[in-house]
Hints:
Growth Hormone, Chain: A; 19 helices; mainly alpha
Amino acid sequence: MSQQQGYTIAGRLERLPWTSFHTKLLILLALGEFFDLYDLFAGGFVSVPAASFYHVSIPTSVFYTVAISFLGAFVGVLVFNIIGDAMGRRTALLMNMFVMSIAYLLTPFAPNVYVYGALRFISGLGYGPEALIVLDIMTTEFFPARIRGRALSIGYTMSWTAPLVLAGLAYALTGIKAPLMGWQWLFIIGGLGILTIIPFRFLIPESPRWLEVKGRIEEAEKIMQKMETIAQKEKGQLPEPVQLEVVKSQRIPFRTLFEKEYRKRTVMLWIFEFFQTGVYYGFTSLAPTVLFEKGFTIAKTLEMSVIIYTGYFFGSLISIFIIDSKAFDRKWQIAAIALLMGIDGLAFGYSSFVTALVATGFLFGLLANIFSNAYHLYCAELYPTRVRAFADGAQYSLSRLGNFVWLSVLPTILVLYGALAMFSVVFAYSVILLIDIGIFGPRASKIEVEKLSK
């Protein structure tokens, strides 16, 4: 079915079944997201030993290890999304991993906490756009509506082996002091791992939806024909394409996000992105530090963290089966589960026994990744392809800025007032998310992005 016969690339994409093309693409996308998540969890394992190494307080170490990297991610999202919209999704995803790998390999040799912080900022520049451009946007644009959510959940589930690998490495490297300490080896191993996946990124094709809205029909047609040929070979005769209108790309003024058709969802998403980081990363990036502050040794903290972080993997696994549910629409997966995370965080903050801490921590991780997979797709699918990277980048950058703010504030509350006080703040953020998404968010499950994003 050629472009000349009147069907758009987007319409032809929507009629495709899941094929080996989609499976290979998803594996390639998940490889990069693995190291994004590796970094997001590294802060929890590195902050305490780095504080001792650089002779600074734990809140200061969290600031230079985690908060500063999110400030870099805030800048990275803005920069690489401009590149993604102007030069293509593929170009952006080839560049960002190289930046991150160099910073990772240099970080263990930082002579003081200020150079260390600068390198963590550069790491953030690299990993900042990874989830957004690589997995969220590329999944949204390559997969049809009926399997879009399942595809993203499978991609994230593969990637969510990262915290388990990281926790295992941190535990195995405990006690190593020469020639580098265990926490420094986490950066070396991560940097080398990132370098090994960069060649595989050249195998990721450009988004045919993006090529179409840019008017590069011949390039889009080549990718589309390859996908259709594979689908016909593996699945047989294809159904008729979906009739979808595609608006060609043009220079996008910032005010576009606040025009009548987008104003409500832009404000809703900006509020959501700024506060969701306080809920999600208030636990994800600080759980080992919280356990240490509760009086557990570093070794015991690492043992407990290995069990707790398996919850994230199982939560992502569960999301595969519910993310596309019309009965439990994505907006309610986000809103309701955010509140449950806030409640469970309070229980974690209040707990003092190992069993209770592990149980509530595991449950938080499980809830967190049902929430995370749903919102990553939800935020990417609410805008049309011609402005998706620009709009999604603008609101997603606020999540990175929120990370910088909350992870500068929450560790201080933790040290001064305790875990329960910190998670009381986290609970307040979860209530804001429930109100914001529950009242103002549109339904989204199994709706073509061209229709949903009008």
